[in-house]
Amino acid sequence: MTDQSTALYAARVPIFPRRVSGHYRRLKWGILIVTLAIYYLTPWIRWDRGPNLPDQAVLVDLANRRFYFFWIEIWPHEFYFVAGLLIMAGLGLFLFTAALGRVWCGYACPQTVWTDLFLVVERWVQGDRNARMRLHQSAWSLRKWRLKLTTWAIWLLIAVATGGAWVFYFTDAPTLARDLVTFDAPRVAYLTIALLTATTFVFGGFMREQVCIYMCPWPRIQAAMMDEGTLTVAYRDWRGEPRGKGLKRREAAESLRITGPQVGGRAPLIPMPGVANTTTAKRQIPEGEDTRPPGDCIDCNACVNVCPMGIDIRDGQQMACITCALCIDACDQVMEKTGRPRGLIDYVALSDAPREAAGGEPIPAWRHAVRPRNIAYFAIWSAVGLALLFALFIRPDIEMTVAPIRNPTFVTLADGSVRNAYDVRLLNKHGDDRAFLLAPSLETDAQAEMEIEGHPGHVVPVPADTQSRVRVYLTAEPGTDMATEAASRVRFWVQDMTSGERAHVDTTFNGSEN
Questions:
Q1: pTM, 2 dp
Q2: Per-residue confidence at 136, pLDDT binned at 50, 70, 90?
Q3: What does the pLDDT look like over 341-396, one tens digit per residue?
């Protein structure tokens, strides 16, 4: 049997976080509403691209190998835009972690957002912390079954909506919604919805903090991103210890208090000459008792009761902490009720601890954010973003690729002329059909004839938002430099007959060397 102290996995003990209000709770509500609205509503936003293109604003069109984002269209050969966005996302995660710890985990991670949403449903149906604890510990009854099944049913509806919203990003949302209801949708759509429904239901409803502790790799990686200058949620133990045993002990300690220099945001409790001796004489202090005046922490466990991870922030930095800052809101409320300054639990840099404990002022938050490493992250992140914007705005609306046929590299005709063949691919990125004029530009004054297979002239029609591949033959007259030299430079030009926009590709013409 594995010793509990060395076990790599512990069975889950249900956590029932208490409802709390405050600055960080309101911030989390705002982020939750915005992120869920973006996720659920984005597939239904329309964007007119023309009669021949999809009108869904954000669409990953796997069938036609396109990615649409409002006015931006990404083709397969432009995947570097997606790669650049992923790099920016990674650098942004590094930047925020180095500056503010695990703010992604505490505020915007999908696991956190959906767990918060499921907790709202749980509180609405079953009540707040104490009511839910009593319900969990009670025997199964008709009332318990009713409350649990109601909670699970609402969770399941949210999970189905979550899985359904995901598949809407990959095809036209209204059409797929109708097909799903009439059971005409592809089987893969139902399988995807079922899988995402199950994972959302289980992860957000039952596993919750275990996903963060045992499944997510980020808690292990974050250690390399953080240092003593990182602002993270922490308990000011130099101000809170030793913990007072409730208000009665604090009231007793207040009778011994004198004024003195502020240390860590509170006045130290130092005995007054003449008063301390009298008080000490009246009260026998048991052996081993901490005789120091109590700190600001009254050991009410409010910070523990609101924590969705079930940890005690007063135990120091822990891998399970997602820095959601709800313990800050809970502690600030207690500090206000007891007449103590807020901030016993706060966003704190560990490097400030000695200074604050000695009575000094903490370094301003902006100075912790503006550090060389964070500046480097931001500079790289900005450079990648600017490069993507530059590449996006300079890319042409028409593109052409030319691939010489290598087998054979050239053909000598009966009259001595030499012919090369090329596969030319024309891309029309416009929302309407376009005609493109194709013509060669030769390095020398030699004459060469061009023929496009299947097209009598030099004009190639290309439907809207598609590509056309044509076979082009270029023939050099006998005895010319192009016909006899090993390789000659050739430039193919393409011109949009509607807009006049032009593009070109350089290639080579292979001669017979005879």
A1: 0.79
A2: very high
A3: 999 999 998 888 888 888 888 788 888 888 898 999 999 999 999 999 999 888 87
Name the pLDDT band for 291 (thresholds 50, 70, 90): low
CA distance 121 to 117: 7
CA neighbor of 167 nearest in space, from 35, 33, 39, 38: 39
Evaluate if residue 264 carries a pLDDT over 90: no
pLDDT of residue 279: 31
Residue 3 DSSP code: -
Contacts of 88 (CB under 8 A, 6+ apart): 381, 384, 385, 388
Question: Strand runs (DSSP E) across 100-235, as ranges?
Answer: 231-235
Query: 115 exposed, middle or buried (CB, 10 Å; 0-12, 13-18, 19+)?
Result: buried
| CA–CA dist 347, 323 (Å, integer) | 9
- CB atoms inside a 10 Å sphere around CB 223: 11
Cis amide prior to 242 (ω within 30 degrees): yes
Q: pLDDT digit string (tens) for 40-95?
A: 999 999 998 877 788 999 999 888 888 999 988 888 888 889 899 999 999 999 99
Burial of 513 (0-12, 13-18, 19+ CB in 10 A): exposed
β partners of residue 467: 427
The C-alpha atoms of residue 331 and residue 329 are separated, in whole angstroms, by: 6
Rounded to whole angstroms, how far apart are CA atoms 57 and 64?
A: 16
Looking from the CA of 437 toward its CB, the CA atoms found within 13 Å total 10
Q: Which two tokens stand for residue 183?
A: 């059971």
List the beta bridge partners of residue 496: 436
What are the residues whose beta carbons fall under 8 Å from the beta carbon of 160, sequence distance 6 or more? 193, 197
In the Cβ-directed half-sphere of 405, how many Cα atoms lie within 13 Å?
Answer: 15
Amino acid found at 286: P
Q: Looking at the DSSP assignment, which residues form a beta bridge with residue 412?
A: 418
The closest of 92, 90, 116 to 35, measured between CA atoms, is: 116
* 442: enclosing H helix or E strand: strand 434-442
Question: Domains in the chain, please, with CATH?
Answer: 11-225 (no CATH), 231-363 (no CATH), 398-510 (2.60.40.10)
Task: With beta carbons less than 8 A apart as the criterion, state whether 43 and 162 touch.
Answer: no
CB atoms within 10 A of CB 339: 8
- pLDDT of 2 > 80? The answer is no
Element (H, E) at 418: strand 418-428
- Tokens representing 186? 């592809």
- Give the CA-trace dihedral at 50, 51, 55, 60, to 10 degrees: -90
For residue 285, is pLDDT > 80? Answer: no
- The pair of structure tokens assigned to 238 is 């130099």
The Cα–Cα gap between 17 and 268 comes to 33
**% of the chain with per-residue pLDDT over 70:** 88
Higher-pLDDT residue of 252, 135: 135
Residue found under tokens 């691209």: 49
